[in-house]
């Protein structure tokens, strides 16, 4: 009987094995999404809400750019706002549909996915027929595609540089087609993808290596990654060669040598490049690419990431001296960055299944990704402000087509992707999320039951089958050494491993076996990188935050304006925010009092505070439609006295400056500008940081008449904002005589004001009781913004 049973068992497993691997999976260690079912909990709720949100978007509007560029008649109008980057959301949307088809078999997602693929196939065929010189295989919605790509093919980048990141744009559809095949097994999508890859190879075939590198100075998304994936699908070396040609040496070379050159670089331009490096390294075993991907991940997660896993401010990696920008600014870490860092983490874990990767993955998914969905509307978040008492802004369906709307569409469809992975005869339990696994190769089904993080345990039950394999249980970094407990059928498992590792349970598993894992959580402090006076409070892997009110949440649900993703309500003063006073910061973790019958909620009643607030700490991902605290200023008693002294000193300096001031004008304010006889052309005023400013552009100017009181030995003091965009080179004149050429383009990269003084030669002042100070912009440049102008002794 045993022999007959084993024969039946092996025959069934062989059939299942052939069926699964006929799908040509790209990632051999991952289970198909259809084989991992989410059970009730916050992740399933987020996934289901996201499907509801996805189905509110209009597919023909997403497809309109593709039909327009090929010369076909769109069936609806294109989206506005960021769909000036026409087509980029369409690719993300296709990816999201494919994921949900695989994970849930949702019929409407499937219908829409198949419809999109049929329309895209028609576009590709029409491009091949109508534009054989440049468009054979092309399926993109980039505005002005014909001019951009036909001229780029010849080495003329004029149209390419005037367009909005064309390669970044088309990359989203490359990824969408790949995902429609990889997740949903659609062969048409694979064929369209490979023809599209051939187009990329052909359109760049005539470019020299120097021209390719120059082209890659413009954001290109993950083009090197998708071309490497084409190699993985076909084993055709031409795609691997192309992937390496699309790899930016500006980043590849230093990263492969362990050199961090990320300061002041656009974060989400760099992260996808590193994903491509890792993918190329994984498939080709080229150590240079492997080393670059590894070091990039290490330096970003170790030195450039915040407590909730996100990185960047104002979309850029700050230098060490500029990390206070996280506190001063409201443009905090971008959701797209975490989306891409998770992809890089997934790739690295596939090559080397180390627990450190899953520690980061869990922290970022639980705290950043889960928090970027409005639990009522399903809207997506672009920036997550770190500034105390700020708030997040959410998108609305069919409006505000930001990059983070695109990645947001995908984020909530992938929660089941890495809960379990496998390698050889080992099953890795990576994440503690309620779910069911159907491990077809082994004929095993496993159910994971947990309310984690609201309970400190999870239970795995073998619900079907039997097989011999190693169960690799993740020992999280946030569980204390020796505190993890594992019981198999009630019997404790002994181990010698330490936190951030995997514990191996090697045995024959059978129906009814139960594994119980006890995961004690405790409170810890996480410091803001390079700003040790600001701390976050963690409970296990969960970031704790506090709601601080709902006043002036201007733009909470974004409109369709270009900058609607940025919270525009009043910035509340930093010095009025709560300040924790504690000589031993570790004591704070012991002073939190759990709230009865409310898991993961704590009071701060035992914590000494200046500007105290009566709030509860709760998981940050549950805070929505409100202002919040995530990082807190925490000072010792001595530091607090120094802090008060610094405020006093600043006030004394302010009074001393006022005594030195001969005359001043506040640009942007009507009466002061009238009082100082302002003259201007091609000039505008605005507000930033609750301060008014004026700037001139494209050869324009503005000027003021200032009193000298017939004094000499004077200086001109001008206030600038240290985090301006664009070309800020301009000239300053005194009575039409040039005083100085100023250029602060990328000079400071800090979110604070800088008061810059210029000595005025006495020859420009002698015998005058008034002078005219003029700020003259240059062609294609901006003079200012100027926030304050003073004549000082």
UniProtKB/TrEMBL annotation:
GO biological process, one term: carbohydrate metabolic process
Every Non-reducing end beta-L-arabinofuranosidase-like GH127 middle domain range: 427-521
Pfam families membership: Beta-AFase-like_GH127_cat, DUF4986, DUF6805, Glyco_hydro127M
Domain of life: Bacteria
Ranges for domain Non-reducing end beta-L-arabinofuranosidase-like GH127 catalytic: 35-416
Stored SUPFAM superfamilies: Six-hairpin glycosidases
Glycoside hydrolase GH146 substrate-binding domain mapped to chain residues: 656-792
Domain DUF4986: 549-632
InterPro entries in alphabetical order: 6-hairpin_glycosidase_sf, Beta-AFase-like_GH127_cat, Beta-AFase-like_GH127_middle, DUF4986, GH146_SB_dom
Protein name: Uncharacterized protein
């Amino acid at each position: 009987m045993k022999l007959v049973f084993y024969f039946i068992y092996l025959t069934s497993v062989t059939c299942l094995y052939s069926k699964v691997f006929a799908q040509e999976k790209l990632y051999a260690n991952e289970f198909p999404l259809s084989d991992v079912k989410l059970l009730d909990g916050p992740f399933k709720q987020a996934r289901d809400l996201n499907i509801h949100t996805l189905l509110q978007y209009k597919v023909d509007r997403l497809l309109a750019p593709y039909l327009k560029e090929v010369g076909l008649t769109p069936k609806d109008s294109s989206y506005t706002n960021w769909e000036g980057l026409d087509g980029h959301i369409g690719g993300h949307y296709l990816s999201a549909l494919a994921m949900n088809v695989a994970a849930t078999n949702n019929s409407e997602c499937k219908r829409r996915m198949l419809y999109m693929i049929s329309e895209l196939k028609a576009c590709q065929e029409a491009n091949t027929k109508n534009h054989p010189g440049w468009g054979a295989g092309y399926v993109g919605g980039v505005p002005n595609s014909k001019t951009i790509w036909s001229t780029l093919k010849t080495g003329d980048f004029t149209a390419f540089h005037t367009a909005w990141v064309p390669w970044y744009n088309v990359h989203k559809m490359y990824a969408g087609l790949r995902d429609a095949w990889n997740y949903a097994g659609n062969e048409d999508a694979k064929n369209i993808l490979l023809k599209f890859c051939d187009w990329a190879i052909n359109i760049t075939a005539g470019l020299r290596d120097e021209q390719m590198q120059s082209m890659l100075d413009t954001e290109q998304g993950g083009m090197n990654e998708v071309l490497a994936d084409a190699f993985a699908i076909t084993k055709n070396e031409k795609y691997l060669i192309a992937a390496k040609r699309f790899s930016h040496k500006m980043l590849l070379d230093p990263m492969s040598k362990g050199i961090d050159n990320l300061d002041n670089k656009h974060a989400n331009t760099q992260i996808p490049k590193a994903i491509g490096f890792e993918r190329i390294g994984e498939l080709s075993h080229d150590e240079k690419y492997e080393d670059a991907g590894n070091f990039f991940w290490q330096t970003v997660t170790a030195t450039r990431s915040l407590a909730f896993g996100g990185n960047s401010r104002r979309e850029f990696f700050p230098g060490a001296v500029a990390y206070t920008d996280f506190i001063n600014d409201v443009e905090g870490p971008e959701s797209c960055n975490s989306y891409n860092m998770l992809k890089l983490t997934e790739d690295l874990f596939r090559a080397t299944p180390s627990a450190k990767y899953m520690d980061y993955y869990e922290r970022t998914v639980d705290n950043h990704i889960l928090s970027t969905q409005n639990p009522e509307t399903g809207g997506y978040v672009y920036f997550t402000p770190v500034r105390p008492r700020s708030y997040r802004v959410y998108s609305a369906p069919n409006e505000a087509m930001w990059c983070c709307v695109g990645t947001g569409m995908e984020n909530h469809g992938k929660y089941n992707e890495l809960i379990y992975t496998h390698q050889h005869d080992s099953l890795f339990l990576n994440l503690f999320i309620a779910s069911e696994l159907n491990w077809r190769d082994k004929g095993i089904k496993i159910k994971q039951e947990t309310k984690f993080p609201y309970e400190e345990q999870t239970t795995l039950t073998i619900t079907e089958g039997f097989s011999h394999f190693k169960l690799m249980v993740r020992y999280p970094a946030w569980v204390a050494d020796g505190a993890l407990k594992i019981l198999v059928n009630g019997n404790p498992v002994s181990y010698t491993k330490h936190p951030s590792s995997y514990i191996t349970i090697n045995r024959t598993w059978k129906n009814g076996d139960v594994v119980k894992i006890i995961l004690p959580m405790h409170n810890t402090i996480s410091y803001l990188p390079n700003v040790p006076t600001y701390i976050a409070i963690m409970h296990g892997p969960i970031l704790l935050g506090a709601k601080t009110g709902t006043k002036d949440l201007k733009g909470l649900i974004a409109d369709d304006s270009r900058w609607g993703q940025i919270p525009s309500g009043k910035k509340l003063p930093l010095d009025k925010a709560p300040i924790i006073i504690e000589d031993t910061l570790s004591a704070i973790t012991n002073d939190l009092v759990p709230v009865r019958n409310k898991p993961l909620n704590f009071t701060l009643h035992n914590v000494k505070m200046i500007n105290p607030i009566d709030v509860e700490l709760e998981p940050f991902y549950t805070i929505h439609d409100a202002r919040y605290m995530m990082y807190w200023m925490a000072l010792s008693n001595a530091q607090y006295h120094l802090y008060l002294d610094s405020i006093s000193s600043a006030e004394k300096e302010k009074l001393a400056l006022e005594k030195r001031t001969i005359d001043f004008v506040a640009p942007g304010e009507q009466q002061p500008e009238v009082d100082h006889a302002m003259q201007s052309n091609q000039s505008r005023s605005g507000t930033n940081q609750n301060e008014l400013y004026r700037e001139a552009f494209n050869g324009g100017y503005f000027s003021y008449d200032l009193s000298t009181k017939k004094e000499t030995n004077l200086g001109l003091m001008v206030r600038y904002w240290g985090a301006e965009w664009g070309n800020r080179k301009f000239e300053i004149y005194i009575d039409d005589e040039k005083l100085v050429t100023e250029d602060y383009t990328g000079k400071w990269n800090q979110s604070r004001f800088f008061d810059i003084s210029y000595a005025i030669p006495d020859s420009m002042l002698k015998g005058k009781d008034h002078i005219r100070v003029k700020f003259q912009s240059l062609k294609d440049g901006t003079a200012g913004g100027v926030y304050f102008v003073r004549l000082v002794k």
